[in-house]
Amino acid sequence: MKQPIITGILSYGMSGRVFHAPFIHANNDFELRAVTERSAKNIKDHYPDVISYDSVDELLQDPEIELVIVNTPNNTHYEFTKKALLAGKHVLVEKPFAATSQEARELFDLGKQRNLKVLVYQNRRWDSDFMSLKSIVDSGKLGDLIEVHLRFDRYRNEISKKAFKELPLPASGLTYDLGPHLLDQVISVWGKPQCFTKTTGIFRPASQVDDFMHIHLRYESGLNVFVTASLLTAAPLPSFVAHGTKGSYIKARTDVQEDQLQAGVTPDNEKYGIEEDGKEGTLTLINEGGKKLTEHITALKGNYNRLFAAVYDAIRHDAPYPITEEQVLVQMEILEAKG
User: How far is CA 38 from the centre of its chain?
Assistant: First the structure.
């Protein structure tokens, strides 16, 4: 009989409510025991049997909790992850894992010393749109890849009320907010680049942190991967574009999971993760006769449940976790590089 992993979530704000609690609650491999809520106590409205602690330290002192999800502000990830490990808990840490590669190495080493799992939460590997790009790339239909573009475009001219995102604190700014999503997707497919160049900028009025990021990653094969994120893009471009010697693939950012979770759709709903009709990607190939062939590709089902299945297998069965230490360290080195 399976033994569920007793889990605590360090914050029951948006990420706790949307990206973590529904998956823990719907999965018999986990049991949600407690969250931290410093002021408003909202957990009882959704999960009446879950404990609401007033502080992180109280939650970490709960002897029944085995796994702690660190989903607090970016600049606290290192501190709270270290505290959780010292309290004897496995950890699942939201992006960005840390502010520097030095901090990241220290946390990974501490986990090994204490025989605890240090796992990084990179859910967008299981976005429908990205998985569709990956499936096309893996199929070889595009031939030898020449250039790939991944973008995260938004238009938010105003300064966020979340101070940790807008003040010049460790791991603040757009590079550390959206950069980890994009870089993890790239690294999961193509690995460590041979070299990279990075550009960041500040364009919003009164902004103290970067709100534009562009990274050009070059690989030994000759492949060029371009990663871009912006908070001032009024007309978003396609988020996934790949050009190869035999054709091209273009896909908008169309994953529905976040919107569904915000609307209360649970991860065990049969419609969860399925894109609407009309959101298909476009595959354009040139055949041997030089004729252009166009096909609309239905996206794969998005499924963040697969991340939590990997967490369970890593903790209970010591199975390899798909987001590896080496991949995270490559990401951290790029994030912390001057732009």
Answer: 25
Q: Number of helices (H) and strands (E) in the chain: give both, helices first.
A: 13, 14
Token readout for 225 is: 């991967």
Determine if the pTM surpasses 0.90. yes
For the segment 246-296, what is each residue's pLDDT rounded down to a tens digit? 999 999 999 999 999 999 999 999 999 999 999 999 999 999 888 999 999
Domain 124-303 has CATH 3.30.360.10: yes
Every domain of the chain and the residues it spans: 5-121+307-318, 124-303
Q: Which CATH superfamily does the domain covering 5-121+307-318 fall into?
A: NAD(P)-binding Rossmann-like Domain (3.40.50.720)
Q: What is the pLDDT of residues 156-165, one digit of tens each?
A: 999 988 888 8
Q: Dihedral of the CA atoms 73, 74, 78, 81 (nearest 10)? A: 50
In angstroms, the CA 79 to CA 167 distance is: 18
The secondary element (H helix, E strand) that includes residue 283 is strand 281-286
Strand order in the sheet with 145-153: 195-201, 212-218, 224-230, 145-153, 240-244, 247-251, 281-286, 292-297
State the sign of the Cα–Cα–Cα–Cα dihedral 271, 272, 273, 279: positive
Bridge partner list, 247:
285
CA gap 190, 256 in Å, rounded = 25
DSSP assignment string, 122-170 = -GGGG-HHHHHHHHHHHHTTT-SEEEEEEEEE-B--SPPS-HHHHSS-T
